[in-house]
Structures are given as structure tokens and as C-alpha cells.
Specification:
Elements (H helix, E strand, L loop, with lengths): L5 E7 L3 H12 L4 E5 L13 E4 L2 E4 L1 H14 L3 E4 L2 E5 L5 E5 L2 E10 L38 E2 L4 H6 L1 H4 L4 E3 L20 H10 L4 E3 L3 H4 L18 H4 L3 H16 L3 E5 L3 H13 L5 E5 L19 H6 L2 H14 L5 H13 L5 E9 L12 E10 L2 E10 L3
Parallel strand pairs: 1-2, 1-8, 2-5, 9-12, 10-11, 12-13
Antiparallel strand pairs: 3-4, 6-7, 7-8, 14-15, 15-16
Helix pairs in contact: 1-2, 8-9, 11-12
Length: about 400
């Protein structure tokens, strides 16, 4: 008699790597169960442009993984939305314990990506790095020897650029004093050039461009890039000089480095939109690529400013990613009233005593103007203080896709 909970292979993670494995294994008539704790497709579903994926010249992350999911199911792969809690791997049959039940299998594939989401079970460290992932947005060989411009001087930005610097020959590191206001944390802003340099060296970079502020802004400097409209919302309301400084230094660095592509994290979604607009408006011959938010195992978006958090504030800050998931879920369930979605997210954040809300808003991603109905290209962004740390998080949806 067939054991309903017995599989040939179980796959932890339903991102592109896990889906690819499911397709090939199910096609070969193996019984396969894919376990995913968050959403089918993983972080790549928020990537607007996927290029050079095997057999696909250009698509978007959501369409790519939706097609892979359908194909895997058509071949007979099974899927379970659950969290892996423990593995028993010593016997002939492996046992995967999840919050939806226990399952037996002959083999386990840990496919949580090139930057793994840690599942959190005892002994997991021994499996780290054994999954195989294909980086759809950053086909490494395509960038061999090229100069890549990655914005950011903190830990998260350096970590985000590791894959690219493995192939590229030139890395730019600069913390820009112009984008900090007079009462902001320029002097204490977390930066560790030695650690960044070692990281770049291990991944094969040849050059680090690390100019001092005096080199970038010589005596008498008086030329600025000052955009109107997009900076006049969200973070721009409480940081009035910030985006003027961002646009000015990024323009200068683009002129110095002359990159083919520049990579900006989605966590700073307003900055991403502003840089895209500047490149378009000023006819810069280059491409801006948005990179998905990188999160800790408990969901908190990685940020240099996370080191400011006291232990109790660090624990409280997880409410931001929980509110992101709440907003996404309400929209997935059909809610389109901006006020109801934002109110629910604010209520959730406000339930955390250590959270001090700066803003939670929904805007048009292309104009940063407020919206009443969730339609088109939508950004839901927030800024919340926990002690001395001002943290941001967001999600982006294209309702036209």
C-alpha cells in the first residue's frame, strides 16, 4: 500500500532553484514534495525584469515562477505551504517535521537560494550551501571584467553586491555626507571599509574606489542635482535635503565610473524611483536595476542601522515585516481601499509599544503621489523609529500584471 506521506525527494524552498529541481525530478517520475513557508516563487517574484534565464531571454519574476510552478504541478510535483521545524537524517529514510505534519523521504534538497533563508531547525548549518540556485537577474559571467556600480556603504549593501563583485573588476564604496541633514547620523553611520574590502577581495574584485568627501566635494562646490515632485513625499518630507544629496553624488559617481548598469536595493524604494527618473530625464546611457529586499530569518529587512537596535527593539522591529505581509495579504484577498489597508497596517505596528510611526503610506510608484484605490504600479512604504534607529520597509505591486 502506498504511504501517502512517503516521497522520493522533499525540497525545502519554492524559489527558482526549488521549482527547477521539482520540474526535473517530477518529470523523471519521482514523487516530489516542495515545502515553502512564505510564497511560491520566493523573492524573485518582486523582480520586474529577469534576463538570461535558461531558455528565456526576458520576462519578470512573477511570470517566470508562475510558469515554473504550473509546469512542476503538471509533471506531478506536490506543494505544501508549511514551515520546516526539524530534520531527522540519520536513518535510511529521512523525516521532515513541519508545522503541517511529518513526512518521510529518501532525499532532501535544501533549495533556499544563493542567499539562504535559514529555516531554523537544529543542525541546519551542516546543510547550508548545499542547495543550488541560478541567479536569474545577475547572470554572473555576463558581467565578467566589467565595472559595476553598487550604491551603499553599509553591511546590507556590501552583502547585496557580493555575487556581482565575484565577476566584476571594480567596486565603488562611498558614504555620502551631502544626503545627511544637520541633525542626522553621518558621524555614527555604520561603515566598515576593512570588512568591505576583505569581502570584495574574496570575491575577486581588483579595485575599490573609495574617495574621501574632500575629493568629491572640493572647496567652492556649488553644483547640485535638485529634483522636484518625487522627493516631496514619504522620506522627503522629514529629510528635506536627503534626495538632493543622493541625486548629486550618484550623478557624480555615474560620471566618474561610467557604468553600464547600477544596482539599487528596493528597501529604499523612493530612492530607486528617483534614480530611475534622473537617469531617464538626463538621458544617461545606462540601466538601473532594482534588487529585492534582503531579510533576516525572522523577516526584518537588513539595514546598516539595525546595529543601533537594543535587544528588545530588535525583537519589536519584526512588526514591520509582519505589517508588510498583512498589507500584501489584504490585497491578495481582494481589498483595494487604500485607507483600510493602511489603517490595518498602522494598527498592527501601533500594537508594538516600542514602535514610533513616522509614516505608513500608499503611493503611485512612478509619481510618489497618494492614491485612494490600489491600482497600477503601487508602492506601500513605511518609516518607523525604534529607539535611535529609523527603519524603513515596503512592498511594491504592479496591479497591471
Amino acid at each position: 500500500m502506498k504511504n501517502e506521506n512517503m516521497y522520493d525527494v522533499m525540497i525545502a524552498g519554492a524559489g527558482p532553484a526549488g521549482l527547477t529541481a521539482a520540474i526535473y525530478l517530477a518529470r523523471a517520475c519521482y514523487r516530489v514534495l516542495v515545502v515553502e513557508k512564505e510564497k511560491i516563487g520566493g523573492q524573485i517574484t518582486i523582480t520586474e525584469e529577469v534576463v538570461n534565464y535558461p531558455g528565456i531571454e526576458k520576462t519578470d519574476g512573477k511570470s517566470l515562477t508562475a510558469a515554473m510552478y504550473r509546469q512542476a504541478k503538471n509533471f506531478g510535483a506536490e506543494f505544501l505551504m508549511a514551515e520546516v521545524e526539524k530534520l531527522d537524517v540519520d536513518g535510511e529514510y529521512k523525516i521532515v517535521h513541519t508545522n503541517k505534519g511529518d513526512f518521510s523521504c529518501y532525499g532532501i534538497l535544501h533549495a533556499t537560494g544563493a542567499h539562504p533563508r535559514m529555516l531554523g531547525f537544529e543542525g541546519e548549518k551542516r546543510f547550508k550551501g548545499r542547495g543550488v540556485a541560478y541567479c536569474a537577474t545577475c547572470d554572473g559571467e555576463f558581467f565578467t571584467g566589467k565595472e559595476i556600480f553598487v550604491v551603499g556603504g553599509g553591511y546590507a549593501a556590501a552583502e547585496e553586491s557580493v555575487f556581482l563583485t565575484k565577476y566584476a573588476s571594480h567596486v565603488t564604496v562611498f558614504v555620502n555626507p551631502m544626503q545627511f541633514g544637520p541633525t542626522e547620523d553621518l558621524e555614527s553611520y555604520p561603515r566598515d571599509l576593512d570588512a568591505d574590502a576583505k569581502l570584495c577581495e574574496t570575491t575577486g574584485a581588483d579595485v575599490i574606489f573609495h574617495p574621501e568627501p574632500e575629493e568629491m566635494y572640493k572647496p567652492g562646490f556649488c553644483s547640485y542635482v535638485n529634483m522636484t515632485g518625487l522627493p516631496d513625499a514619504l522620506c522627503g518630507l522629514t529629510r528635506p535635503v536627503h534626495f538632493k544629496g543622493v541625486c548629486t553624488v550618484v550623478n557624480k559617481l555615474f560620471n566618474i565610473v561610467q557604468p553600464d548598469r547600477a544596482y539599487f536595493g528596493q528597501k529604499d524604494a523612493q530612492q530607486l524611483a528617483i534614480i530611475m527618473r534622473m537617469v531617464t530625464d538626463l538621458n544617461m546611457d545606462m540601466e538601473i536595476v532594482g534588487c529585492p529586499i534582503i531579510r533576516e530569518a525572522d523577516g526584518l529587512a537588513k539595514s546598516s542601522r539595525n546595529i543601533y537596535l537594543k535587544p528588545e527593539e530588535r525583537q519589536a522591529a519584526v512588526v514591520l515585516s509582519k505589517s508588510v505581509k498583512l498589507g500584501q495579504k489584504m490585497i491578495e484577498d481582494g481589498e483595494r481601499d487604500e485607507k483600510k489597508i493602511v489603517a490595518a497596517m498602522k494598527d498592527l505596528i501601533g500594537s508594538e509599544p516600542l514602535a514610533d510611526i513616522d509614516y505608513v503610506e500608499m503611493v503611485d510608484m512612478d509619481t510618489m503621489k497618494s492614491i485612494d484605490i490600489v491600482e497600477g504600479h503601487v508602492l506601500c512604504a513605511m518609516a518607523v523609529r525604534f529607539g535611535k534607529a529609523r527603519l524603513i520597509d515596503n512592498f511594491i505591486l504592479d496591479m497591471n500584471k
